[in-house]
Amino acid sequence: MEAKDRIIVALDVDSLDKAKSLVKSLAPHVGCFKVGLELLTAVGAPKVVEFVHSLGGQVFYDGKFNDIPNTVGGAARAVAGLNVKMFNVHASAGIEAMMAAVSNKGQSLVLAVTVLTSLEENNAHLIFGGPSKAKVLQLTRDAKIAGCDGIICSPQELELLGKQKELGSLLKVTPGVRPEWAAAGDQKRIMTPAEAIKAGADYLVIGRPITKPPAEIGTPADAAKKIAEEIAAILQEKR
């Protein structure tokens, strides 16, 4: 896998018109496009996925399924039928729900969402009743039992997960990645691309640093290429 293939661009827009120029310019320079609830709701899932495919991009369907097993299984079957590269389900929906997603994934990868990267530690305690890292570890183990292909976690949990040999086969997909030249935004538990790859990330989800880069960086394609170079340098060091 090339360095650029590890980049997943978040298409956080509400129309295909706004997405078109980004997908066309970035498809040669990144591995995948994450389409989330805003665009999927505004336009409709089949239309969005077909649109990205038509412009040469692959799709990470960020639907974050979180329901009873039967419903999650049906949703997984439907999205797998769209030939997306990957889709996700909340690990907190439970092992049976994740198993239902895995059973209906077709050729797609199933990723389990652990603890959202927008949550500060105090909020994680309020929601989960304990430290975020402990919850991420528990949910990752549940995802492994369920047969998921990977998990989504903050870069801050990568080192902890890397120490668990039984979890080594799971792909690690990390939002909350910001180059040094980009603003942190609403992500709380962040790392640079180089730090995240060094810590064990397989894929990096990056939005605004690529789609709306600082003027001194240049175009979205320039930003993607700059990040790919950063990733490539770390991969070379790890060899």
Automatic annotation (TrEMBL):
Quaternary structure and interacting proteins, as annotated: Homodimer.
Keyword Metal-binding found: no
Keyword Transmembrane: no
Pathway this chain belongs to: Pyrimidine metabolism; UMP biosynthesis via de novo pathway; UMP from orotate: step 2/2
Matches recorded under PROSITE patterns: OMPDECASE, PTERIN_BINDING
Lineage, top ranks: Bacteria, Candidatus Wildermuthiibacteriota
Residues that bind substrate: 12, 34, 62-71, 117, 178, 187, 207-208
Entry keywords, A to Z: Decarboxylase, Lyase, Pyrimidine biosynthesis
Primary enzyme class: lyase
GO biological process, one term: 'de novo' pyrimidine nucleobase biosynthetic process
SUPFAM superfamilies documented for this protein: Ribulose-phoshate binding barrel
Name by which UniProt lists this protein: Orotidine 5'-phosphate decarboxylase
Enzyme Commission number(s) of this protein: 4.1.1.23
